[in-house]
């Protein structure tokens, strides 16, 4: 068996390169992706740069995060927090000629903050963590999703303000329809403080930034840097993380059959040229040297 590592796509940043069966609406604070196609199975891995609200109108969309798997079926939805890496498998069902129809809403922090203030949700913040869950979409939300589809036909002429109003309408409808989802929106803004070492170790080979790690640890960026420096006795968290990834990459090159490209993507680097440059700076030789058979 040949080992191969797939490049992790950062979304929504890299979704513009998707096939023609996918259409996108974008404005500051929001990216909406609508896709309708025929497929038996498509798999991949993506890193969520923003919070993701996913609706499935036809087919099945499986999302795996760590040991958890969420299966979103026809007329269901799920909300996932940003700064995590997930595996997915999406497919149509045999009885519907393998039609796969879904819509993804990527929500930035500022838009979520605006909604929480407008809806006056802070006073309703739950005392216990609300787990991620898959919820049924009621008839009103199904009509809303279908009403949004014509907007994808005229993306150049739709004003940003109108799309923003439509999105806020969606969030209000969701909060009104399901209290559990209302609490999940609040949790996205109040991530619990976690151990720095736990967050770093869990994400060391993911394409995360310091901002991502700070968010996942429940700290501001400045607090995260301060705590990181104290724990790891370093003045540069970025350099420490990069060197740790390079150490892991070196071991993978020596002890696995993965190619240099696969090792690059498997250890959180997003550019092969950058990976090769910093690897040579650290170890004095190019990464390809470690793949050469011994003389």
Automatic annotation (TrEMBL):
The keyword Transcription regulation applies. Pfam families: ExsA_N, HTH_18. Keywords: DNA-binding, Transcription, Transcription regulation. Residues 194-293 form the HTH araC/xylS-type domain. SUPFAM superfamilies: Homeodomain-like, Regulatory protein AraC. This is Helix-turn-helix domain-containing protein. It comes from Paenibacillus gansuensis. The keyword Flavoprotein does not apply. InterPro entries: ExsA-like_N, Homeodomain-like_sf, HTH-like, HTH_AraC, HTH_AraC-typ_CS, Tscrpt_reg_AraC-type_HTH.
